[in-house]
Amino acid sequence: MTDVIFGINLFMLGYFGFINASYLCLLIISYFSIKKYRRQTGHERWRQMIQSPLTPGVSVLAPAFDEAATIEQSVRSLLMLKYPKFEVVVVNDGSQDGTLATLKTAFMLQPVPLDLETRLPSEKVLGIYRSLEHPNLVVLDKYNGGKADALNAGINVSSYPLICSTDADSLIEGEALLKVVRPFMEKPETTVAVGGIVRVANGCEIASGQVTKVGLAGRYLPLIQTVEYLRAFLFGRAGWSALNSLLIISGAFGVFRKDVVVEVGGYRAGSVGEDVELVVRMHRHLLEAGRKYEMQFLPDPVCWTEVPESLAMLGRQRNRWQRGLIESLMLHRKMFFNPKFGTIGMIGVPYFFIFEMFAPVLEIAALVLAIASLALGYIDLAFFGLFMTITVLFGSVLTTGSVLLEEVSFRRHLKTTELLKMIAAGFAENLGYRQLNLWWRASGCLDYLRGKTAWGRMQRRGFGNSLDGQTQDSDRF
Amino acid sequence: MFAAIAAIALLQAIVVLAVFSLLIERLARNFYAKRSEARLKDYERHILGLLVDPTDIGRLQQAVDAGDRTFVREKLLQQSEQLKGIDKEHMTDVFLRLGFVEQEIGALKSRGWWRRLEAAVNLGNMASQDAVRPLIDAAKDVNEDVRLAAVTSLGRLGTAEGLGVLLDALEDGDQWTPAKILEILVSMGPKIESEILRRLAGGQSPMSRKLYVELCGHLRILAGVELLQALADDTDLRVRTAVAQALGIIGHDSAVGTLNGLLADKECLVRAEAARALGGLGSVETVEYLQQALDDPDWQVRRNAAVSLCRLGPAGKDRLQAAFESGTAQAQRTVAHVIELDRLGIPVIG
Amino acid sequence: MARILVTEDEPYIYKMLEFRLNTLGHEISLATNGEQALALVDSIRPDLVLLDVMMPVMGGFQVLRKLKEDDGTSSIPVIILSAKGQEKDIVAGLEHGAFDYITKPFSFPELIARIDRALASAK
User: Fold this and answer.
1) Which uninterrupted H or E stretch holds A104?
2) What's this model's pTM, rounded to 2 decimal places?
3) Is the CB of B87 inside 8 Å of chain C's CB atoms?
4) Residues from chain C contacting residue B83 (CB–CB below 8 Å)
5) Which residue would you say has higher pLDDT here, A207 or B223?
6) Could you tell me the CATH number of the domain that includes residue C13?
7) Element holding C78 (H helix, E strand)
8) A441: number of CA atoms within 13 Å, CB side?
9) Do C16 and B88 touch (CB under 8 A)?
């Protein structure tokens, strides 16, 4: 009996050791790829590109559901993107709070006769509006159908070969669009999707739809999330991208080739995690067709997003992310350890299956088991200590690593105290946040099993005001 | 077991050390920056002063000698970047006199590719003709990023001497580099026309043909219209699309026949581009074809055709009205949309 | 001499403009976005506005339109200083009521000559 329990504990220890070792590998890969990217683009003259007629047009899609409070500001911010040729397509997804009326007065909208191509299925479109003030603003009014459906409708009305998915309440930096389009121009034949980094806007100074000064939130939850996002993007995503196995491109800021998105059937309506699902499906489709393609994550084009500050909202968001992930992986489980799908089938998908999907369940089980074993005397204190070191401290050390990655590369946080605070947050994460996150994700797993796919609703504070708005989506990292 | 603990302890120790060294470095940098702030402000004033008196480089020479080379170079580059004409020439002179051009030419042979890349970019900005030969050599660098930077800088120097290398490097289908230097190529105009025409006639790969077709269009080389027309039945659809686009930009009447032909291409991308291009030609001969294109199965083709008809004035608008009254349902939708936008004075996107 | 309002979100370009135009005796104010620009036009009543069209918050064209709609400010000449240099951009700028259009990169002799001409025309 003792042996069995000791054995299980040892297995768990190995599991966590392996997870941390793979993080470490990712960290190292990311470090080199970010350094290379910095060196390649450090001297790029972004502003000069603004004149060029050779840049492809981009349709920026902004789905909006009940966002009357914030919609004007976020659309104005999108319209100010520094890019030669783009349109902003706002899709009003059956809002009940006067979002459309707000838009109409703010931008002098005029209804125009419907003319769109039904490349993708979507709920019925009620009308198209154009602005007398901004020739590149299109507003689409449709029956409610969820974020994926709204994005599909946006694609139907879009006029340019590239589409950029955004969230109506994330802020994309001015030159970010140019930066993110660069791979599409450098390798026009193979690049199909590029994602930028999403950073936490809480604590930053925001004036009129622009982050004017980067700062850190003082409160525990947003502070931890700042570090969490840095970690997820700078070493998670950058590492996977270097391995050409990027499985997630954030719905808050991702650019896709429209023809490929249409070819794979667009966003999956009713999906909980439509952004992950689309990317996984694109991989699957292109690999099955034997086409050469690239999807990239770039660590520099920034999208700022406001993260939830209340436990309830955060819990719902994480629960939904977990369900979205499971849903996408289960839909495409065929790729799991399937050599036909190359690196993605053999490394990417299995990794997400084992370390993201089952992680919460396994981690909780391991914790309970370890504590129980210690209490019952099956394992000694030394083993328990080792176990805790590996699971807890090592993770923090890696978080510190990602903060350092930021420090050696982009250095958006200028104050030394902020840097120290972020490093401290990496450790403080273990006091409460980590356990809560585990719980939320585990309940996400349970909810998935119970077949719950309804939208988790989320309240946001919105930029520039304190009115509560509700939205059906939030920004995945 | 013990080994595992030891390994973890070691790793953590390394990270802690890294944190500390970075912090110390950061603090040192902040401290140094504070101390030299006044001095750097003074340099910056002198650099701005060059806008009034470009010969007054005494203080900057001192700064360079005192080891503030990098700061002065970066500030000068920043200023030079925004200028053109006589001001730019003055900046080039300053770069030469302070020895920066020579330094960067030397740096083209550095070991680190990123330093070579930086030097290649900087030389383009410094705009000294001394750099042409070294940049031509750098355009054969082993590193792709360096090659493209050298080519871009050659373009910025605006010399016909480097043109061959430059065009060679653009032929692989990358769109980013041409986009960066297109404007400069356009400003070089007549100097490079014959070379582009020669290459247009002998384009081997589809990507190179597409490049020269695009250049021919954006440079509006009238003499290229015939060659472009000959490429209208190219096997590669990207080339045909580019031909339609280029003919539209050049806008010469003789292209009407070819473009009308491309309106019947089997690829919708080509048809859409031809429909768009016809609007720019302003020839009434084409209304018949454009009206037919309003019934095209592809949305973009219909839309571009409607917009083009709208641009053709009364003759075109009559056709639109006719299509609105008696066309297919699809055509009616598109036409209604375009007519209304025209009435409101809002441009159609795309 | 003249009061000139510069709207520019690139700090170094502003520094250059400020330095060079100061030496000619002009008085320079800065707005970094469109909203600020309109507020400053109201408070300082400049003789000339140098306008970047790509700015955060409110684009240059929108500022231009508002300036031209208001009788009190419609006579202030506006020169656009923009990185967008395509024909259609220049045409759009002039159609919106700009007095002149200068593309970046620019040269000071040209800029100064155009500023002088605009100031003379407003008198």
Assistant:
1) helix A99-107
2) 0.89
3) yes
4) 105-108
5) B223
6) 3.40.50.2300
7) strand C78-82
8) 20
9) no
